[in-house]
What we know:
By secondary structure, the chain is of the alpha/beta class. 34% of the residues lie in helices and 18% in strands. It has 14 helices and 15 strands. It has helices spanning 25-33, 61-64, 72-91, 113-123, 128-134, 139-144, 149-158, 173-186, 204-212, 251-256, 285-298, 316-330, 341-344, 351-365; strands at residues 10-19, 22-23, 40-41, 54-55, 102-105, 165-167, 192-199, 242-250, 263-272, 307-309, 337-338, 367-368, 391-392, 398-405, 409-417. The strands form three sheets. Strands 1, 2, 5, 6, 7, 8, 9, 10, 11, 14 and 15 form an eleven-stranded mixed beta sheet that branches. The radius of gyration is 21 Å and the shape is globular. The termini are close together.
Amino acid sequence: MKDHLGRPLVAVTGIGLVSPLGWGLDRNWAALLAGTSGITRIRRFATDHLKTTMAGTVDLPEEIAGGEPVPAPVRVERMAAAAIAEALVAAGMKEGAFDSPLMLGMPPVEMEWPQRVALARRAGGHGHAALSVASIGQRDLYETFLYGGVGERLALRFGTKGAPIAITTACATGASAIQLGVEAIQRGEAKSAIALGTDGSVQPEAVIRFSLLSALSSRNEDPTKASRPFEKSRDGFVMSEGAAALILEDLDHARARGATVIGLVSGCGERADNFHRTRSNPDGSSIIGAMRNAIADAGVQPGDIGYVNAHGTSTPENDKMEALGMRAVFGEAPPPISSNKSMIGHTLSAAGAIEAAFSLLTLRDQILPPTINHVEPDPTLGLDVVPNEARRVSGLRHVLSNSFGFGGQNVCLVLSAAP
């Protein structure tokens, strides 16, 4: 089967997911529909004197048992591996023999404070030259913080073919990874692909940096109520982490092997601007363009989109810009839009993949997840945000999933019901 441009239709046959709501797709989906928040007080490091003291964390077993927090790249890889393994099982594929590429979306990585302090102690000082000398022979340190190392190790474990592609496009990263996989299949370069978004950046330096940008919520008294997208009193996003993996396949290939098709990735649209390193252009052109490009790429009309999975970060600026984009694309009667981030926080590089996964389940089960913590609507936005409770629907065929990243990196996906 081909799409309106003569390209292979791209099916999703397996999904794996990790978030602050738990490990595993079914557990996450049930919690999301119940309106459960995964946001808690940060426990893995001291938060004394920090303006923000909560996040959506995914703690590893050794940390829960009282061990030292692991570096972000280790957490990124562990969550990614769990998501891929679950997705392969769901797709009916064997681990270790995936004869297609890996498209990995992950955050930039850098040596963290504990490792810097350890090097400084070894060097007897903090000067760059002394630290460089102290790092000689530290192969484990090099491999842990080597950006491409995560993809290489995942490729080795799961048997993917070709060089793993690792990409980072800020908050659009997970959606960018999906787009790369979709386009490889559409071009006929692969019959399938693993597309993955993962992030484990809740560590002191990252929290401080986002706080200095005035981007984070400081509603610490009740973490579960801190993330409130599109609500009048929203005051910033909540940092979070997680991973989602999608098994993408040429639809004909999937059917030939008897796979169950969860849904289709029928359209991808991207658009960038260079207005500011964190803010979108006030005219909304790149957000609007990304949404329109995805809809056009899918060969549908704006009126065919029955629901939008929002970027919905809970910052005053982002939610205002997304509402502007919705009205420009859909007119004065836009479809319902809700934000998973109200429950799981902003999973940064993982967000586009996690929210694409939830969008596919929305289509499969014909139920819209809610935007929780919606106490007082923002009258300037005027959107149906599916407030506080999930909503059953019927006849839903196409969902738009938005991912708008810092620096004007925007990617939108159209997910469609299985044919």
